[in-house]
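User: Can you fold this complex?
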Amino acid sequence: MTVEWDWIADHTGELTALSVSHLQAALTAVLLGLLISLPLAVLAHRVRQLRGPLLGIANVLFTIPSIAIFVLLLPVSGLTRTTTVTGLTVYTLVVLLRNTVDGLDAVPAKAREAAKAMGARPLRTLLTVELPLALPVIMAGVRIATVMSISLVSVATYIGDGGLGQLFTDGFQRNFPTPVLAGVVLTLLLALVADALLVAVEYVLTPWNRKGRRA
Amino acid sequence: MIEFRAVHKRFANGTTAVHDLTLSMPAGGITVLVGSSGCGKTTTLRMINRMVEPTSGTIHVDGRDICSQDAALLRRSIGYVIQQSGLFPHRTVLDNIATVPLLLGWGRRKARTRAAELLETVGLAHDAGKRYPHQLSGGQQQRVGVARALAADPPVLLMDEPFGAVDPVVRTQLQDELLRLQKELDKTIVFVTHDIAEAIRLGDRIAVFRTGGRLVQCATPAELLARPADPFVADFLGAERGLMLLSLIPLGDLPRRPVPEGGRWELVLGPGRRPKGWRDRSAGDGDGALLPVRPLRDGDSLLSALNESVGSPCGLVVRVDTEGALTGVTSREEVHDRAGTAHASAARAASAPPEPAPRAGDHPPVADPAPASAPGTTGGAP
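Assistant: Here's the predicted assembly.
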């Protein structure tokens, strides 16, 4: 099995376009997943009775096989990008929802109580105290969800999307390994770079975790 | 002025935290709520800023019913210092202090300027402002907690066991600082502690609670020590009650005598006539080892004098002026005599105006051991 570098050189434009499309699908899914998870997590955190059902539903959704989820969505949104992103979003929920709830649970009770005692109302407490303090745990979830989504996009090749996944079908059909290898390597690179960027984002957003203890 | 009128707090699980409390806390004074754990002192404190809502009864702060005000706005108008500081771990010291000003909409610059000012007020270095709470020592964190409570200059300050988590040396420093601040700022302070010595040291008035949320006695420290209302209070004050009373009485005009010439012990003076220690003449010549002396100023208490008289090798207490220069000595016998008479007169003074200390038993019905079953007693808040 040899890599034909000429093919890669001839297809750089296509490879770049596929990478961008791949990343777009994955990141949109994570973003939507966050938008859905945040309010649900706050709800699950505040109303104890809702916690079990909400986390349970997210877990059940996660057990649906990925191909099945795209097929199930076909009657609704057809062979579109929407189907890809919707499917991926469903998978991000299980990680994002649980981590956000865990993150909110980990906020020290003293800090929450102090905010209330200083006269902050609940929304302000959430935005300025609870979410910032939950951020490290939420970000851990975002990192997992991002890497997972990047690897999952390829499955959407079955519905005609799939970003870099298209290289796999192309390579298999023609019994030509170079596109397959290029697809694998590019997917890995995207995942690594995205993860590194998220680590950097967390570093910037949590200055209090960098400063060491008093000498 | 904070006024509790017939305040009752029963929690959802049926326990009564505060039982029929009627108590007024004078403006510009430190009222200490003291008692063993589970006696309702913290609940009482937390009802003042509505962190806990009373089941029935009313609480007025400066003449206004607190339940008629928006809870969040009320809390911004009352300073609150929390156990173990309760600082926001993700905000710098400066931003922690600026919390309430920012909530009040002061604008970031003005709030930070005020916060920087307060750093100095509570005795912290300017560069501490840029640090995060976990980079500070326990005592420093507690100072930040006090600064945060003072930021919007509230007339009332609630302090919930603020110095409970720091070591004794730092605690004494923080207590001194609080007394100094209070002299400057003249706030109405409500202070919760389970440490009776702290209560005696800080309180203008002390309210003693017992299990079941009953107020047993509220009095000045001297009154409380001289005439505890019942065996429970006496027991709570402990075996050293008499000595604690002496800690409240200054040495003042106790006569000073010249240092005796000759004899076995010689008082060695340093520059500025500052006492350095006692030298044993019988131990031969030379400088020898000096026995340390802790000279007392007129503002020091009779208790310190008693302590010194016990420790002094010749039974003499060394007295100095505010500069630390020797003014004379006082004998052990004179200190003891004064301690005895001071104790007796404090007890007499405390009993002279028989102030009706609000006690649980003062309010009808006299005995209420069973949970109140009258449905009308709940839901008193509007």
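The first strand of chain B starts at residue 2 and ends at 10. Residues 332-351 of chain B form the longest helix (20 residues).
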